Amino acid sequence: MKIGTVPYRSVWVDQDDGWSVHIFDQTRLPWELDILRLTERDQVAHAIRTMQVRGAPLIGAVAAYGLALALRVDAGDAAMERDAALLAATRPTAINLRWAIERMLGRLRPLPAAERVAAAYDEAGRICDEDAAQNEAIGRHGLRLIQDIVARRGEGTTVNILTHCNAGWIATVDWGTALAPIYMAHDSGLSVHVWVDETRPRNQGAALTAWELGSHGVPHTVVADNAGGHLMQHGAVDLVIVGTDRVTRTGDVANKIGTYLKALAAHDNGVPFWVALPSTTIDWHVSDGLTEIPIEERNGAEVTSITGRTEDGRIETVRLTPPDSRAANPAFDVTPARLVTGLITERGCCQATQAGLAGLFPEHA
């Protein structure tokens, strides 16, 4: 995707700068476009924990490069296992992180230490290329859902889509998951408008999704998280598309906190609720999302405070709540499969059921 006229991926390697890894600091968006240069494992771990880099597919890709950076210091067996475990533990909910680390270890363990650094960079690059290709395919399959609405209602129809959190290109290596169909619809000349949930407490919708869509020229409106149900009741939403951090083999979906409430509202109002994901986000070992998916509990300061830019251009964090009020901050919730219309994957769309997923991915059945 492009920022202005410059094409970017969300993570890249600079071979001329010591094979350093570069990412956007997403905590500075939309106010500043700050590129971080990562040269060691601990910098990568910090970037993931603090959400300088976020989005399930992108976390996995960056962690893969983090292991490559760690191997430059010590490529021995014990160090590699230790560094892999440290990176895998940075965030518990997104399955792509664990998947990427396990894939890296599968490639690296059989190799002698002297060959591991080059192989690690190569494998991390493959993970990135595959993620970009998968998300582009998700965009093509999801585009048909938007085209079907236009076909039913007639040319010139504006399709109103609601999304939650940020599942765009800066949450992946390229294209995005939930936003990929929207970009393709817009680029093909279809009239689309996106309702962007602010996504408290970190405001990934208001800050990141709105920034992405605006940069690409896609019409959008930022709304409070609690406005979604109202919009659906009044026929202002044709389709909900969200991303996800983990999907069980039975179709339960873990995504940013507040997704479950949107699914309930969509179900009550007959609005299709679709979830877009690459197959790397499917946890084939888990069947019950409510009991088996760990839900990350983040610092309560994310709830009690908010960061923004003042009128004179300063970026400031201010307190929202009384100083003695405590805050709970579960970062994700689980939407049961019964509330999900379907899943959009790189192999096509399917029902959010074990049979539906097995039909697209028989090798995991």
UniProtKB/TrEMBL annotation:
Query: Binding of substrate: at which residues?
Result: 54-56, 91, 204, 255-256
What are the EC numbers?
5.3.1.23
- What's the domain of life for this entry? Bacteria
For this UniProt record, give its keywords in alphabetical order, as a comma-separated list. Answer: Amino-acid biosynthesis, Initiation factor, Isomerase, Methionine biosynthesis, Protein biosynthesis
Q: Report the GO molecular function annotations.
A: S-methyl-5-thioribose-1-phosphate isomerase activity; translation initiation factor activity
Share an example GO biological-process annotation for this protein. Answer: L-methionine salvage from methylthioadenosine
- Where exactly is the site Transition state stabilizer? 165
Q: Can you state which reaction this protein catalyses?
A: 5-(methylsulfanyl)-alpha-D-ribose 1-phosphate = 5-(methylsulfanyl)-D-ribulose 1-phosphate; 5-deoxy-alpha-D-ribose 1-phosphate = 5-deoxy-D-ribulose 1-phosphate
Q: Pfam families recorded for this chain?
A: IF-2B (PF01008)
Q: What does this protein do?
A: Catalyzes the interconversion of methylthioribose-1-phosphate (MTR-1-P) into methylthioribulose-1-phosphate (MTRu-1-P). Also catalyzes the interconversion of 5-deoxyribose 1-phosphate and 5-deoxyribulose 1-phosphate. Part of a bifunctional DHAP-shunt salvage pathway for SAM by-products.
Q: Could you tell me which NCBIfam families the record lists for this protein?
A: eIF-2B_rel (TIGR00524), PRK05720.1 (NF004326), salvage_mtnA (TIGR00512)
Name of the protein: Methylthioribose-1-phosphate isomerase
